[in-house]
Design brief:
heterodimer; A: 877 residues; mainly alpha; Rossmann fold; Arc Repressor Mutant, subunit A; 46 helices; elongated; B: 68 residues; alpha+beta; Alpha-Beta Plaits; 4 strands
Chain lengths: 877, 68
């Protein structure tokens, strides 16, 4: 660092001790000139003065809004990166929509293209321009994350500029930006100090005047390298004869950095040297922690002194209590420390870990425990506090720790491996998780409790499209196993394992598997029994469970119940401080489904946003995506009409992993929409593609009625027994009964059926099922029931008309045409005679004549040509 | 500009070449490819080496040619 007294937008105060600071107008001007939506890439080796330049640049421009993210290897965990990135943007630009917060949750290996696009899209709404500073890109080893940041740089809107520093060029495609004039590159050659700039720097650090010859010699020898000049200046401060120092330096053929660092370190007093060599194991320095590691009590004075001497101490907080060493300096110190033997280094790390853990900084403590090779202690700690990272969605960090620990000690504890398995599932690393699962099962000394815990964690595959039957086999085995063993035999993992957790996870997986298989009653019963279990104390399991139960209840048409349960889950997540956790996805999905069942489009739209953000940031879960696809299609049908929705509903090209319950729902929905637009053969084709086991009773009835085959429709209705507890199916059945009776001419019976359907659906305000049978809405509009006002709004009628384009066409008629009459009407524009029509329809000529007469009467015409004209005007043809 | 000749252990396809902006294949023989090209400075050169690594191309030899 050239200038230690840097100020930054996060509000680091300028130190009272005057520090050297050399402004670099020629470079600041180039940063000023970065185009809107452009990128400034500062790519140069360590110590070239990249960071200092950027901080100086924005510090002296108080009107700039700056979001700074200093990257660390911890940002390879995509959740941390996403949170850091969005957090810094939100801190600088509070007007950015809060919806961004939801993006911060989720897991996966990369940010994801969708997240990048959404972020870029949100940035267009800024009130004032923003500069996004990303420091130290080179520390990221997660290439997917790095690529996503590059994508972000490429799609930035004009409101935002990006300034990125790195030691190594990132693998970004910069050609487009370059051609568009949106790329500013500041490289080693640009950052190198020229003699006039160097003089200011050298003199302020050395605190003495220097001749031009000395300055020129140093610039020559260091190639204008910022840290090299600063190191030389520090040595010059105590050198008796500057000329002698410079000539010996210039005459040496040793590496510049090595020569100068050795000079600087050797010239410090032994006490200071000892302090540097001991504390260099720390990532962050504060006085108490330094004292704990050195065993001395003078850290406060030491840090002040180092800071005063510009000894590469970088302040990390506004109060100036926390520092870090400049990277290059720390690396050299650690290298020197290494020569004192690995045991010494481990001892220092152990001391650091002890202090950090005593002071509640478990995560930093674990990092030091791992470096100290204190495997057992690290595993013990992770086993008790790991859930906190899980709750924050930072499972990837857990995976990193436990992977290192397992590598240190391949035969280590089963607990560590179970923790790793849980973390890998949490981080959506399904393949790695499978491998861990297999390794656990291969362990020679595996206890029954450990085996059961492994199976239970593996059942998380239920979210990834694993066949429900296979999940149920697994959960049955765990259930039997849990009866055989003592509760204390089940190991803990991440601090949230043990008997009760294993039972809860297992029952939850079983409940979801029943749901995906289409057995809603069994699903609801299993999950409801789990809800009543008093021992279910861990809030996240409870949140997951309630979300699943809400979804099942919504699927059964119990909208009010579903909304209540989902609300409880969402509130619990809020209270527990994890409102954006993946555990809330199913609850948000349930809310959306319930609102759509009520055809409450505004409310559905609001809740879909909540689930969409969470699903997009979680690329690994098939099930979430499929559920969301179903929601999208449903929503589209209601807002953009059936044609667009049908495009979304084409059979998925993916493998057959779609859950049966979703597959059946998709088929029913497609058939309903196709019949609505009178594409009867299309609906038949969907049915033909479905296996014989596919029940689809409501769609079958609709198809028969659309063809006028009342008898077949009657047979389906009579043989159809809606499952217990499934309100939606019960109302559907009642409405088909109504439709069949209506077609049979039994208007009294039809009316009774309609009344029963309205009464059953009223409590939950299930409107969608009535849209499936538009004749029911027509009947209610003509003759309302005392409590059917919620079904006769103009908005609902408009929705019905949009889904059934011919429906509104009969509005102008005193008496609507029947299904059969509409079929005959379709023949009239052609040249066919009644006899031919009869033959084509497999009915008698007299029947056709009766229908035609009836059509003429209802349309108020006397001739065929007029009937065609009138029907066309109405939109019936 | 700094000019380099880099030999890697496998044939380099057009897709990989696109990622290795500024370099071209001058020879493919014995399962090795010889790439020649220029980079602006060391940071760019190391970026280039990282990209070779990402593409799983093993470096057999690097030769710095005369600066242009």
């Amino acid at each position: 660092m050239v200038a230690m007294g840097q100020v930054s937008r996060q509000g680091y105060v300028r130190d009272p001790v005057p520090h050297e600071e050399v402004r670099r107008p020629r470079l600041e001007a180039r940063l000023d000139a970065v185009a809107p939506g452009g990128l400034a890439l500062l790519s140069a080796s360590a110590g070239s003065g990249k960071s200092v330049l950027v901080h100086q640049w924005f510090s002296y421009r108080p009107r700039l809004r700056v979001a700074v993210l200093a990257l660390t290897p911890r940002h390879d965990d995509v959740v941390r990166l996403r949170r850091g990135l969005l957090g810094s943007i939100r801190a600088a630009a509070p007007e950015v929509d809060e919806a961004l917060d939801a993006l911060a949750a989720g897991v996966g290996a990369s940010l994801g293209e969708d997240v990048v696009e959404m972020l870029a899209e949100r940035l267009t709404t800024l009130d004032r321009d923003l500069v996004l500073v990303l420091e130290d890109l080179h520390v990221l080893s997660n290439r997917a994350v790095l690529a996503d940041l590059g994508r972000l740089a490429a799609v930035l809107p004009a409101t935002t500029r990006m300034v990125a520093t790195t030691r190594i060029d990132p693998p970004w495609r910069l050609q487009r930006l370059r051609l568009a004039g949106r790329l500013t590159e500041i490289r080693s050659a640009d950052l190198a100090f020229e003699s006039n700039e160097a003089k200011g720097l050298l003199e302020s650090v050395a605190q003495r005047e220097l001749s031009d010859d000395v300055v020129t010699a140093l610039v020559d020898r260091t190639d204008g390298w910022a840290v090299g000049l600063q190191l030389a200046a520090i040595s010059l401060r105590t050198a008796a004869d500057p000329e002698a120092f410079v000539s010996s330096f210039a005459g040496s053929d040793r590496l510049v950095a090595e020569y100068l660092l050795d000079e600087v370190i050797d010239r410090t007093e032994p006490e200071v040297q000892r302090f540097l060599l001991t504390t260099c194991v720390l990532d962050h320095l504060n006085a108490d922690l330094c004292d704990a590691v050195t065993g001395a009590g003078n850290a406060r004075q030491m840090l002040d002194e180092l800071y005063r001497r510009s000894m590469f101490l970088v302040p990390l907080d506004p109060s100036g209590r926390t520092f870090r060493y400049h990277h290059l300096f720390a690396e050299v110190l650690r290298y020197r420390l290494g020569s004192e033997g690995p045991d010494h280094v481990k001892e220092l790390n152990r001391r650091a870990a002890t202090w950090l853990i005593e002071h509640g900084e478990d995560e930093r403590g674990i990092e030091h425990l791992i470096r100290a090779h204190e495997n057992d202690e690290a595993v013990r700690l992770i086993s008790t506090m790991g859930h906190r990272l899980f709750e924050r969605g930072e499972s990837a960090t857990l995976v990193r720790w436990l992977t290192v620990l397992n590598a240190h000690d391949p035969g280590g504890s089963a607990e560590a491996m179970l923790g790793l398995l849980a973390a890998q599932f949490g981080a959506d690393e399904a393949e790695a998780a499978m491998e861990t699962y297999r390794r656990i099962l291969r362990r020679s000394e595996l206890t029954e409790g450990e085996r059961i815990a492994a199976h239970t964690l593996y059942s998380a595959q239920v979210f990834r499209g694993m066949a429900p039957e296979a999940i149920l086999e697994l959960t049955d085995e765990v259930r039997r196993g849990l009866e055989r063993i003592e509760p204390s035999d089940v190991p803990d993992f991440l601090g949230v394992g043990g008997f009760e957790s294993v039972r809860a996870i297992n029952e939850h997986a079983a409940g979801l598997a029943h749901f995906f298989r289409g057995d809603l009653g069994q699903a609801a019963a299993t999950l409801d029994a789990l809800r009543k279990m008093s021992s279910l104390v861990y809030p996240l399991w409870r949140i997951y469970l309630l979300g699943s139960l809400a979804l099942v209840r919504a699927w059964q048409g119990h909208a009010s119940d579903a909304l209540g349960i989902a609300r409880t889950a969402i509130d619990a997540a809020e209270q527990f401080g994890v409102p954006h956790h993946q555990g809330t996805v199913l609850a948000h999905l349930a809310v959306s489904f319930a609102h759509l069942d009520r055809v409450d489009i505004d409310a559905a739209e609001r809740s879909i946003v909540q689930s969409r953000h969470r699903v997009i940031s979680r690329p690994g879960s098939q099930v979430y995506f499929d559920l969301h696809g179903a929601l999208d299609a449903w929503m589209t049908a209601l807002t953009e009409g059936p044609t667009r929705a049908l495009e979304l509903l084409r059979e998925p090209s993916a493998t057959g992993t779609e859950a049966p319950v979703l597959r059946e729902g998709r088929r029913t929905f497609r058939m309903r929409l196709l019949i609505g637009v009178r594409n009867v053969s299309g609906a038949q084709a969907v049915l033909d593609e479905a296996p014989e086991t596919s029940a689809l009773p409501s769609a079958r009835v609709d198809l028969h009625l659309a063809r006028g085959d009342v008898r077949a429709a009657r047979a389906v209705v009579d043989g159809w027994v809606p499952p217990d507890g499934d309100l939606r199916e019960a109302v559907r059945h009642e409405l088909r009964t109504f439709a069949v009776l209506d077609a049979e001419g039994d208007s009294r019976g039809a009316r009774a059926s309609l009344e029963r359907a309205v009464a059953a659906a009223r409590g939950d305000r299930l409107r969608w099922v009535f849209l499936e049978v538009p004749a029911s809405l027509q009947a209610l509009r003509r003759r309302p029931l005392p409590d059917s006002a919620w079904l006769t709004s103009e908005a609902l009628w408009a929705a019905a008309s949009a889904l059934n384009p011919r429906l509104g066409a009969q509005d102008g008629l005193a008496e609507p045409l029947s299904h059969r009459e509409l079929d005959v009407l379709a023949y009239l524009p052609g040249r066919m005679r009644n006899q031919e029509i009869a033959a084509d329809m497999f009915v008698s000529v007299n029947t056709v004549k009766t229908h035609v007469a009836s059509i003429y009467r209802k349309l108020g015409v006397t001739e065929r040509d007029d009937a065609v004209k009138r029907a066309t005007q109405l939109g019936l043809l | 500009m700094e000019r380099y000749e880099i030999t890697v252990d496998s044939p380099v396809g057009p897709l990989a070449l696109e990622a290795l902006e500024g370099f071209e294949v001058v020879e493919i023989s014995g399962g090795h490819s010889r790439l020649v090209g220029s980079v602006i400075d060391q940071a760019a050169f190391h970026g280039m080496l990282n990209r070779l690594h990402d593409l799983r191309l093993e470096i057999v030899e690097i030769h710095r040619m005369d600066d242009t």
